[in-house]
Amino acid sequence: MxxxxxxxxxxxxxxxxxxxxxxxxxxxxxGLGDATLNGRELSVVSYLTEHVIPCLIGRDAHQIEDIxxxxxxxxxxxxxxxxxxxxxxxxxxxxxxxxxxxxMPLYQLLGGASRKGVMVYGHANGExxxxxLEEAQKYKAMGYKAIRLQSGVPGLASTYGVSKDKxxxxxxxxxxxxxxxxxxxxxxxxxxxxFQAARDALxxxxxxxxxVHHRLTPIEAGRLGRDLEPYRLFWLEDATPAENQEAxxxxxxxxxxxxAVGEIFxxxxxxxxxxxxxxxxxxxxxxxxxxxxxxxxxxxxxxxxYQVKTGCHGATDxxxxxxxxxxxxxxxxxxxxxQEYMRHTAETDAVFPHAYSFADGYMHPGEAxxxxxxxxxxxxxxxxxxxxxxxxNRLQDGTMFNW
Length: 403
Ligand code: GCO
Ligand code: MG
Prior knowledge:
CATH superfamily of the largest domain: Enolase-like C-terminal domain
Largest sheet: 10 strands, mixed
Bound molecules: D-gluconic acid, magnesium ion
Shape: globular
Oligomer: single chain
Distance between the termini: 47 Å
């Protein structure tokens, strides 16, 4: 038995907010879990401190599955981003502890490596096509095999995915939500031009991806997917909001462009219909927001039955602790597709020293026991929490829209 002695939450903001759970066992092993929920960070802090941690003390850290079920079924109130991020943090920390106790990198406990490395995609963005492609060339030169392209939309002052700091896009940019203005027709006209220019400039031996960020209706998404078919995208992401999973059937009827969805999903129930009806190609659910490694493995196993591959969310708001967990998961899971990798800043990397590394388009979690990531608490303390929101989005006539 590995008795849990103590658990606490560390909040730090080295350029952006991160919430980390640290669990300690009586014999001195420690485990880390990411609990960051962008723009709503303190709700998970409170859920963990007030409601989860008191139930953990004295339990056997080895009983990962039982503790997962205890927190999920025992809460009575099921699912939801706050609950599932809190459960995820506990789950990650317990896997970290178990793997340290076994003196193995976590991927070994998950069945061992199924591949040499985890293919990642980087983010190229610019205010116009030219700038975006300039950025994409930089990623190609760094060895990336897959690049996401987002470009400014002519006539719109700002849009999702385009930032001043090209390498470190950080959407949670204000202590009250920034307001963006959106136009679907202008966007729909501009995206095919971007990808046509991209194929001319970058060639065909690099995977290209695009994130619609929940902004189209199903029929609009069907049309965009069809317009993009000549450019052979790796995927079109979040083409329409997915609360209504059935909506993807309409998109599917109109295009063979592969579809990815799920970065905001919390459980297998959010993607069950999408997967079993083969309405998507990649599932974007991620360790921190979908109940940890334990639950993400369940989603991936289910998806594998339908030839749906993983494509985990990996934006900057997923801390290096989550990135490490995602890499162990990605290295081991049979139906791996791609992993998003929006690089963290040097400040963040310094607070979270880690064993994972990038080389030639692939990442590897490293061979350190456990997750292979630590937190420098002294340094973390120097960056106090700072409220930050994701932007909101309105149509040109003022109607509230999806960001
Ligand atoms: C992505 C995402 C992010 C999210 C952000 C929200 O595909 O990387 O869409 O950019 O908007 O992670 O917290
Ligand atoms: Mg996305």
